[in-house]
């Protein structure tokens, strides 16, 4: 017997949103909807929306609420999810949260809580293969040979946007925009907060427990 379940996962970058959403989806037959991935797909496939997104990003602006809302609406109307979904990367501000609550029923908001200093530790230890794009984390999965990719032998580099300054700016942005979203969801008693510091399995276990799964 499958219940319909619809969740939002929220957390700062480095908190493991994608990983946790994927595990939850696999176990409960849910569909993982990553809003950032949808936009990236449009950009890569040169759609009309992709061209607009590319222009917006070139000016350093954020993609507008209207555009994000219409993409989310369209994605959820595809109804390829029989038993529910986990949405990641939306809503990003108060207006989007209100829109979401008016348009869709949700069952819970998973808030992965990670202190800023831990975000810095995790994100500033990320490396990327300059050749094949493989991701490394110098804390968890160090390469066999220092500075070289295990897969193709390419040179490992820091991602361009992973400087301490850029990260601090992203964190500020996240906290100012996301706090209002959590407050809106908390009023409806949707939010479960989970400590994102432990290992992946512990965090997943806590999420399931708090959602009563």
From TrEMBL:
One of its GO terms (molecular function) is zinc ion binding. Belongs to the adenylate kinase family. PANTHER family: NUCLEOTIDE KINASE (PTHR23359). PROSITE patterns: ADENYLATE_KINASE. Monomer. One of its GO terms (cellular component) is cytoplasm. Residues 126-161 form the Adenylate kinase active site lid domain. Pathway: Purine metabolism; AMP biosynthesis via salvage pathway; AMP from ADP: step 1/1. This is Adenylate kinase. ATP binds at residues 14-19, 126, 198. It comes from Phytohabitans flavus. GO terms for biological process: AMP salvage. Residues 34-63 are annotated as: NMP. AMP binds at residues 40, 61-63, 89-92, 96, 159, 170. The keyword Kinase applies. Pfam families: ADK (PF00406), ADK_lid (PF05191). Consists of three domains, a large central CORE domain and two small peripheral domains, NMPbind and LID, which undergo movements during catalysis. The LID domain closes over the site of phosphoryl transfer upon ATP binding. Assembling and dissambling the active center during each catalytic cycle provides an effective means to prevent ATP hydrolysis. Some bacteria have evolved a zinc-coordinating structure that stabilizes the LID domain. It catalyses: AMP + ATP = 2 ADP. Zn(2+) binds at residues 129, 132, 149, 152. The keyword Cell membrane does not apply. Catalyzes the reversible transfer of the terminal phosphate group between ATP and AMP. Plays an important role in cellular energy homeostasis and in adenine nucleotide metabolism.
